[in-house]
Design a protein that fits this description.
The protein contains 4 helices and 5 strands, in the order ββββααβαα. It has a 5-stranded mixed β-sheet with strand order 1-2-5-3-4. The chain is elongated. Helix 3 (75-93) runs antiparallel to helix 4. The chain has one domain: Ribosomal Protein S5, domain 2. It starts with 6 loop residues before the first strand and ends in a 30-residue tail after the last helix. 35% of the residues lie in helices and 22% in strands.
Length: 134
Amino acid sequence: MTKKQNYIYAVGRRKSASARTRLFKGKGENVVNEISFSSYFPGKIFETRLERFLKLIGPDASKYYFTFKVDGGGKSSQFEACLLGLARAFSQVSEDIKLKLKKEGFLTRDARIRERRKIGTGGKARRKKQSPKR
């Protein structure tokens, strides 16, 4: 027995953060991990980035609301993962929106991740141990 999906699902990732996005049609509150979006991501930087994203989509943005389940990474990486997931979800809505998002670079996955530690570097990724002088 399958349940009817009334949302668009997408996943966004950045560094070690992963955001599962659900885009619903209608009116509702934007939520991240059962907390309101503005409470989970407080501050002007997050607010202006989201406004820029929604302005790019245009008047269609007010017809939708979204929820996120985010884990891993820090706040900034989680926000970037949310934006990528939201962009992927909106790209499924319309081809016109997809082209706008692609042109602005919102559909590009940032593949940079933390470099692993190497053996013999004293616990750092790139540091070399000091060699004795004599």
